[in-house]
């Protein structure tokens, strides 16, 4: 038969029995406490895990919402740009399709030209337009009227001269004899005509063309095609 410490003494056995009962109770209490704590911490862990998952879900939802908002803003900006571009194209197409009135010298422009050019009465001049440019021909006749009023000599030219020029000139240009220009003999009438045309906005800049075919002492006014619309 097994023998344990205090086994032979009633007092020892009773004392050991009591301690074992107390120890059992303590162990049981600790076991119950550990189970309770394990349940509590387990529940807390689940709560924290669920809270973290919820926060992550909210963050993702916010990122998606912000991305959609940025996308909508960008889409609205692109739509506005497309709308403005469409409007510009429509206006440009309308301006190109609309018939343009022929160029004309206004009454004020004619008076300014006549006043400035009258100081050079007798100046010989010819007016040239491009073959096939009816609009340019009409504009050239306005200048012929001005030259006649200023007393300039247009010779026997009752009509505008028409020539084929390559490349086709654009706008209004003043030409004189190349040799005279190279020699520095620029006539005051030429300088005045070029200056007034620029002042009136008929030409963009003061520019003189030289041509050996223009007779010495004469001026050739060239009416090119209409300036293309911007």
What's the quick description here?
With 230 residues, the chain is an alpha/beta fold. It is built from five helices and five strands. It has a five-stranded mixed sheet with strand order 2-1-5-3-4.
Notes on the structure:
- It is a single chain.
- This protein is α/β, with parallel strands linked by helices.
- The protein has 2 domains: 8-98; 107-223, no CATH class.
- Helix content is 57%, strand content 11%.
- The protein is built from 5 helices and 5 strands.
- It has helices at residues 10-97, 107-117, 134-149, 178-182, 188-199, and strands at 124-130, 161-163, 172-177, 208-211, 218-223.
- A 5-stranded mixed sheet has the order 2-1-5-3-4.
- It starts with 9 loop residues before the first helix and ends in a 7-residue tail after the last strand.
- Residues 94-98 have low confidence and may be disordered.
List keywords for this structure.
rod-shaped, single chain, about 230 residues, alpha/beta, 5 helices
Q: What does the secondary structure layout of this molecule look like, with pairings?
A:
Blueprint: H1 10-97, H2 107-117, E1 124-130, H3 134-149, E2 161-163, E3 172-177, H4 178-182, H5 188-199, E4 208-211, E5 218-223
Find the count of extended strands (DSSP E, 2+ residues).
5
Mean pLDDT: 84
Radius of gyration: 52 Å
Helix/strand class:
alpha/beta
What is the number of helices? 5
In the residues, how many domains can be counted?
2
Low-pLDDT segments, ≥5 res? 94-98
Kindly report the spatial arrangement of strands forming the biggest sheet.
2-1-5-3-4
Compressed to H and E, one letter per element, the order equals: HHEHEEHHEE
Amino-to-carboxy terminus distance: 122 Å
Helical content class = 55-70%
Report the major sheet. 5 strands, mixed
């Amino acid at each position: 038969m097994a023998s344990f410490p205090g086994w032979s003494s009633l007092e020892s056995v009773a004392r050991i029995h009591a301690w074992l009962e107390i120890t059992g109770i303590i162990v049981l209490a600790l076991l119950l406490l550990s189970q309770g704590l394990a349940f509590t911490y387990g529940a807390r862990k689940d709560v924290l895990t669920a809270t973290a998952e919820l926060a992550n879900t909210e963050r993702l939802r916010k990122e998606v919402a912000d991305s959609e908002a940025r996308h909508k803003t960008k889409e609205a900006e692109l739509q506005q740009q497309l709308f403005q571009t469409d409007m510009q194209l429509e206006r440009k197409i309308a301006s190109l399709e609309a018939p343009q009135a022929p160029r004309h010298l206004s009454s004020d422009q004619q008076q300014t030209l006549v006043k400035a050019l009258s100081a050079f009465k007798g100046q010989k001049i010819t007016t040239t337009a491009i073959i096939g440019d009816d609009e340019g021909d009409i504009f050239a006749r306005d200048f012929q009227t001005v030259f006649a009023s200023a007393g300039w000599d247009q010779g026997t030219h009752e009509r505008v001269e028409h020539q084929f020029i390559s490349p086709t000139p654009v706008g209004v240009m003043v030409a004189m004899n190349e040799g005279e220009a190279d020699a520095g003999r620029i006539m005051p009438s030429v300088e005045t005509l070029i200056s007034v045309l620029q002042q009136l906005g008929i030409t963009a800049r003061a520019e003189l063309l030289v041509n050996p075919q223009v007779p010495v002492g004469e001026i050739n006014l060239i009416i090119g095609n209409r300036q293309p619309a911007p």
